[in-house]
Design brief:
The protein has about 260 residues and is an alpha/beta fold. The protein folds into two domains: about 70 residues, no CATH class; about 160 residues, Rossmann fold. The strands form two sheets. A six-stranded parallel sheet has the order 1-8-7-2-3-4, with helices on both faces. Strands 5-6 form a two-stranded antiparallel ribbon. Helix 6 packs across helix 7. The longest helix is centred in the C-terminal third of the chain and has 24 residues. The radius of gyration is 20 Å and the shape is globular. Keywords: Signal. It comes from Streptomyces durmitorensis.
């Protein structure tokens, strides 16, 4: 019965017009106050685990990872630079060893570059862009003041592509010694990736938000060279797995800081 109640609460929350326009956390609260979605999640999970305390501790994480896909935002005027994270690619146009031949940036990264260009028209601030995006900023938009975050290339030509965290680390390193400090980052990323991009940027010691009022690209490329970025159902699982991995490390470190 509790599972059916949970399903009914979720359906009602998603079907309520007022909730659809709300931020995710607010949506859960407005779907019934104390009887909102997190409440129903705790009600189902506590008897399933036979542990009310564990359920109470887990539900905020379950909600955040599985039900909240919106990043925190800030006005563009309050941001000092842009960080743009790539999403997917296309196989190398002329073939070759994929470990030593760069892929094509692909249409999604072109859309991300277009988004950066749209933002820059409103405020001329420095841009740090993963190379797949930077290529379009340079060739299509002829944009200046762009730092391309490049992959690591070994002496034998082997290419190691940077993860989301690897890109954030490079940006943090590039800005750490600026006279005015690192500043506040405006994060650009694919619609289903951008929340994690903001989190990862913050985890690297930067204040970060998505620019308020700017939509992010959300159309998947079925020809992407990265299989998990071809379909939304597959990517969401991938992204949740990445969020859980980072969260696990944080929680263990907080619980046992000395090992």
């Amino acid at each position: 019965m509790q599972r059916r109640d949970f399903a009914a609460a979720l359906t009602a929350a998603l079907a309520t017009p007022a909730v659809l326009g709300a931020a995710p956390a607010a949506a859960a609260d407005r779907s019934g106050g104390g009887s909102g979605l997190p409440h129903h999640m705790r009600a189902v999970l506590a008897p399933e685990l036979d542990d009310k305390g564990a359920a109470h501790a887990l539900v905020p994480h379950l909600y955040d990872v599985g039900f909240d896909w919106h990043p925190p935002t800030a006005d563009l005027r309050d941001l000092d630079f842009i960080v743009a994270y790539g999403f997917g690619n296309r196989p190398p146009a002329d073939g070759g060893d994929p470990s030593k031949v760069r892929p094509e940036p692909g249409p999604v990264n072109e859309e991300l570059a277009d988004t950066v260009a749209r933002i820059r028209r409103h405020r001329d601030i420095p841009v740090y862009a993963q190379w797949e995006i930077a290529r379009f900023l340079e060739s299509k938009h002829h944009m200046k003041n762009v730092t391309s975050i490049e992959p690591v290339i070994a002496p034998d030509g082997t290419i190691t592509y940077l993860s989301t965290d690897g890109v954030a680390a490079q940006v943090a390193e590039a800005r750490k010694d600026l006279p005015g400090g690192i500043g506040r980052a405006g994060v650009v990323g694919f619609r289903d990736h951008v929340k994690r991009c903001v989190q990862t940027t913050r985890d690297r010691g930067m204040t970060a938000y998505a620019p308020k009022g700017f939509s992010m690209p959300g159309t998947y490329d079925p020809e992407s060279g990265q299989a998990w970025t071809r379909r939304r159902d597959l990517y969401l699982v991938h992204d949740m797995a990445a969020q859980w991995s980072v969260l696990r490390e944080k929680l263990v470190r907080e619980a046992y800081p000395h090992g």
